Amino acid sequence: MSLRRWKDRMVARLLTRYPGLVKRWAGGRDFSAEMAGWRAGPAFTPWTPLAKPVRECRVALVTTGGVHLKSQEPFDMENPDGDPTFREIPGGAAREALTITHDYYDHRGADADLNVVFPHERLAEMAAEGVIGGVSPVHLSFMGHIDKDLVERLVAETAPAAARRLREAGAEVALLAPA
Amino acid sequence: MEREGLATASVSIVKEITAELCPPRAVFVPWPLGHPFGKAGNLEQQRAVLYDMIELLKTAEAPGALIERDHPW
Q1: Measuring CA to CA, which of A66, A132, B2, B50 is 20 to 30 A from B57?
Q2: Residue of B nearest to A13 (CA)
Q3: How many other C-beta atoms are found inside a 10 Å radius of the C-beta of residue B10?
Q4: CA A114 to CA A99: how far, in whole Å?
Q5: What is the ipTM score, two decimals?
Q6: Which of residues 132-171 of A touch B (CB under 8 A)?
Q7: How far is CA A89 from each of CA A23, A94, A103, A139, B53, rounded to the nearest angstrom?
Q8: CB–CB contact B46 A46 (8 Å)
Q9: Could you tell me the pTM of the whole model?
Q10: Minimal CA–CA distance to A115: which of B9, B50, B13, B54?
C-alpha cells in the first residue's frame, strides 16, 4: 500500500474516533459552492411526493460507502480527487459477494456488519413484513470521496445516470446514506 | 433522483452539511462517521433509522423535512 493510501486511512480513523474533527472540517467548507450548478435551499430542492403507499413501493438503497461486488472493478483509490462513478448491486446480492473499497472512512464496523452502511438484510426483512412493497432489483453504490473537477462530473453526468438507472429498474423510492 | 421521479429519504451524519444542502427528507443520527445505521450487529438501531426514513416518506410535505433522534451510541 502506498504511503498516501495509508495516510488517508489513518485520517479516516481519526475522523471516526473524534467527531469534533468532522464538524471542524465541515465548518471550513462551502459545500453548495463546491457543487457546480447546485442551488441549495427548500425553494430549489427537487421534490417528488410519494405516489402511493410505501407498502406498495419498490425501495432501493443508495450508499456512498464504497460497497461493490467483488467481481466489479474497485473504486479508484489512486486519484486523490476520488472517483465519481457508481456500481450497481443486485437486490438479492449475497453478503459474501460484496466488499468495500474506500480509504476515506473507517469501515471496520461495516466490514463486520455491512448493514451498518448498506442495510440490505434489514430492507429484505421489511419487505417480508409488508412494510415496503419490495426490494428494488438494483441498488447503487458510490465511493463518497469526490473532490474538485470530479464534483462537476458527478452532478452533471453520474448522478442523473444513476437516477435513470434506478427508475428503469422499477424503483419508486430511494433510501440514501452517506458513510 | 427526485427530478427523475423517485421519492427519497437520506441519513444525515453531519447536521451542518444537511442544513446547508437541504435534501428533501433527512434523518439525523448522532453517530460517528462510517455508522449511518448504527453499530455492527445492532439490529434495533438499523431498523430504527430505516423506519424513520419510511415515516418521513409518509409524512413530509415539503423539502427540508428532518427527523432528529437522540439515539444513544
Answers
A1: A66
A2: B33
A3: 23
A4: 9
A5: 0.97
A6: 132, 159-160, 162-164, 166-167, 171
A7: 31, 10, 20, 5, 21
A8: no
A9: 0.93
A10: B50
